[in-house]
Amino acid sequence: MEKQTVQLKESDLLALVDKNRALDATYKLIEIILGTSDFDEMAQKIVDVIPMALGYELAILWLIDEEKEKLVKTAISQTIKDEKMMQKLKEALGNSNIALGYEDNLCVKAIKEKKQYVSEHFFDFLGPAVTFDTAREIQEMLGTELNVATPLIVRDKPIGVLVISMSRDTNNLSDFEREMLRKFSENAGIALENAKLYKNLKDAKDELSEAYENLLALNKMKDEFLTVASHELRTPMTIVKSYLWMLEQQKAGKLKKKQTEYLEKAMKGTQRMIDLINDMLNISKFEQGKVFFNIQQVNICKLIEEIISGFEIKLSTKNIYLKLDDSCKDIFADIDKEKMRDVITNLIDNAIKFTESGGVDINVETETDKVIISIKDTGAGISKQDLPKLFHKFGRIDNSYTIASDTGGTGLGLYIAKLYVEGMGGKIWATSDGVGKGSTFWIHLPKSKIQARVPVPNYEILNRQNLQNQKITSIR
Fold first, then answer.
1. Do 30 and 57 touch, CB atoms closer than 8 A?
2. 299 occurs within a structural domain
3. Number of domains in the chain
4. What confidence tens digit (pLDDT) does each residue in 421-443 have?
5. Does any domain span residue 453?
6. How far apart are CA 363 and CA 370, in angstroms?
C-alpha cells in the first residue's frame, strides 16, 4: 500500500501555527494563575507571557482606578532585550495614567464600549499620557506597525485594558488571533481580579492583626492603670469613710439635724465610690487572670438563709417581703462559697432596690447534674430591648438610672456576677414579661457529686465502746 502525503496550504499552516501559539499562551496563563497569588507578580507575568508565547514586541497592562476615575499603567512587558529601548519605555511611561473622560484614547473607548480597537498609531493608545513625538519614537524603536487594545472584562464589568504592539500590518491580523486575544484578556482579567481580592483580604487581615495587637497592648495598659489607680484611690476613700463614721457617731460633738442629713449623703457617696473601686479592681483582676476559685461543697440553702438575714433592716424600710421556699433543704453545689455569696447578695439587693410593693421569692431546685436558683421579684421589670444589655460592663438599662441615682449602683454588679458564675462552671441569665411585670434571675450551678458531708468518726469513742463491750463479754 502506497503512503499518502497530505498537502497543506500555506494559509492552513499559518492557522495551525496560530492555534499552537494560542494553546501555548493559554497553558502558560494557566501556569501563572495556579502558581501565583501575588497581584503585582501576576500582572507582570501576564504582560510577559504575551510577547514570549505569541511573538509580539510589547504588551502594556492598564487597570481602572475607580476612585480616581482613570486608567493606571500597571505593568509593561520586560521581554525587550535592548536595554536602551527598555529604559526609554520606562522613562516615557513611568507612572503614567489616562483620565477615563479622555475619549479620544482608544484604551478608554475599548473599556467604555467593551470592544477591541486596532490602530497603526501607538499614540492612539498612549495619549495624552505621552506626547505624539514620544509615542512615534517608541514605535520606530520597536519596529511595530500594528497596535491592539482589548478590554479586560470580569462579570460584564471592565477592569482594565491590555495593549499589544506587533510588527505586522492590519491585514495580517486574523479573526482567530483577535478572538484569541479577547479570550486571553478575559481569563487574565478574572485572574487579576481574584488576585486583587486576595491582596485586599490579605492587607485587611494584616491591618486587623495589627489593630488587634494594638488593642491587646492598650487593654493591658488600661488594666494596669485601673489596678494602680483603684489601689491608690481605695486607701484615701477608706480614710474618708472612717472620719465620716466618727462624725456620724458624734465622736467630735453633737450634730444638728441638717448636718446629719448632709453627713448621711456624704457617707452614701463615699460608699458608692468604694464599691466602684472594689468592682473595678475585681474586674481588672479577673481580666488579667488573677482571680482564683476555691471550689468546695456548699449547702446552697444554708448560704441563702445567711444572706437573707442580712437584709432585715432594708426590708423593714421598704415594707416588702423576702423569702426562701420552705422546701429548700440540704441542696449542695460545688462552688466558691464567698464568690457565690457576693453573686446572690447582689441579685437580692437589685431585686429589693427595684421592688416597691410585693416582694422577692427565692427558689432552689435540682436536676440530674445541676442546681437551679431563681430569684423572682414583683418589681419594675425589664423590657425585651433591655434584656440583652444585662450582664455587660456598665450595662445599665434605661429604667434603672433614676433608682440607681438615689440608691447607688455602679452598673458592674451583674457583669461581675456573670464572671463569677461562669468561672465556677455555671450559667446566669434573666427573664421578664416586660416593664412593670417583675423579673426573674436564674443561676445554674454544677451539682455536688457528694449529696451531703458524712461526719468523721471519732475513733477514740469507738475504741472505748469496743473495750467496754469486750469487758462485758469477758464477765459473762
1. no
2. yes
3. 1
4. 998 999 999 999 988 899 999 99
5. no
6. 14
Which has the minimum average pLDDT: 25-39, 208-222, 274-288? 25-39
**Buried-state track 170-205, b at ≥16 Cβ within 10 A, e below 16:** eeebeeebeebbbebbebbbbbbbebbeeeeeeeee
Q: Which residues pair with 299 in a beta bridge?
A: 332
For residue 375, the enclosing domain spans: 295-446
What's the rounded Cα separation, in Å, for the pair 329 and 256? 49
- Whether the predicted model's global pTM rises above the 0.90 cut: no
Tell me how far CA of residue 79 lies from CA of 49, 51, 86, 120, in angstroms.
Answer: 9, 7, 9, 22
Is 319 a member of any domain? yes
> Do the Cβ atoms of 71 and 62 come closer than 8 Å?
yes
- Find the angle CA(43)-CA(49)-CA(55) to the nearest 5 degrees: 140
Element of type H or E holding 322: strand 321-324
Crossing angle, helix 337-353 and helix 300-309, to 10 degrees?
50
Residue 388 lies in a domain: yes
DSSP 139-165: HHHHT--EEEEEEEEETTEEEEEEEEE
Q: What share of the chain is helix, strand, coil (3-state, %, to 5)?
A: 55, 20, 30
CB 119 within 8 A of CB 150: no
CATH of the domain at 322: 3.30.565.10
Are 443 and 343 in contact by the 8 Å Cβ rule? The answer is: yes
With beta carbons less than 8 A apart as the criterion, state whether 116 and 76 touch. no
